[in-house]
Amino acid sequence: SPTGLTLLGLGAMGTALASAWLDSGHDLTVWNRTPTRAEPLAARGATAAASVASAVAANDLVVLCLLDDASVRSTLDGVDLTGKDLVNLTTGTPGGARALAEWAAARGARFVDGGIMAVPQMIGVPGSGAYVFYSGSAAAFEAHRDVLAVPAGTTYVGEDPGFAALHDVALLSAMTGMFAGVTHAFALTRKENIAPHELAELLSGWLTAMSGYARGIAEHLASGDYTTGVTSNLAMMAEGNATLLATAEEQGVSPELLLPFMRLMRQLVDDGRGDEDTTGVVDLLLGSRV
Ligand code: NDP
């Protein structure tokens, strides 16, 4: 069948992907290290392969959703991959994806890496906003674009097999900073008579309103001038930081989540760049201006 595919890995995410492909009528062959996880899918029409080799032999398109790079390699070790198109949706680093691409090419397979920007509950749900970054073989991606678009949106970011992981990790890293800030906000208010769900609504609206911050940084990086259009400059923000830290102390909250970023902002002010915004921190993190 032209729409047939194989999926290796039936964890929380793999099972969600499998469901979406089955719901849309695709001919799906599945394999999982622990075979019992394939049973509910087999009951819904999937073919549960008895071995990795037979699962891979069943279709040209082989999607992987395993724990990490090591499990991808050990799972495919010794299996004939000649002429296969591997789409690896296992989260990893850009370097790991590039190494896997070479490893696959040496075995005669085309390789596409993917970074899933969703949790399993968003997979196969129209309008959920779920999408996957893809990079690597453009020919393999084009050949399977329609099948890949079934569980989530597709965003192809280039031939470099590491780019999907790099985009994925860039977004996850930004999210980590947001989670840290939200966590600190809850700690500040935890002992007071402020309902957590009320603070949550306020945080959600505020963070949405502040999300244009990224576009301001982008403009400055593109122009090389970090002073234009700055509404809150570093000198002002450094004063504000003192208030944030003093309030943390008053409330008995450790400032440890705030301090690393604030130290870098202070360094720029001390370097005489108080009329800029935080764009210069990008250069500090890299050790030099690009
Ligand atoms: P789970 O922990 O639910 O499942 C892990 C899967 O990997 C299982 O199928 C497990 O098999 C298999 N596995 C683990 N180690 C090995 C191994 N050595 N050899 C063969 N198979 C192995 O993870 P998820 O399904 O949630 O995640 C899978 C991938 O998707 C990860 O890379 C994750 O980062 C990514 N992802 C997950 C998201 C999420 O919200 N869950 C979001 C975005 C990406 P077994 O059943 O035998 O243990």
UniProtKB/TrEMBL annotation:
The keyword Oxidoreductase applies. Gene3D superfamilies: N-(1-d-carboxylethyl)-l-norvaline Dehydrogenase, domain 2, NAD(P)-binding Rossmann-like Domain. InterPro entries: 6-PGluconate_DH-like_C_sf, 6PGD_dom2, 6PGDH_NADP-bd, HIBADH-related, HIBADH-related_NP60_sf, NAD(P)-bd_dom_sf, RedAm-like_C. Residues 6-154 form the 6-phosphogluconate dehydrogenase NADP-binding domain. Residues 160-285 form the NADPH-dependent reductive aminase-like C-terminal domain. Belongs to the HIBADH-related family. This is NAD(P)-binding domain-containing protein. It comes from Allokutzneria multivorans.
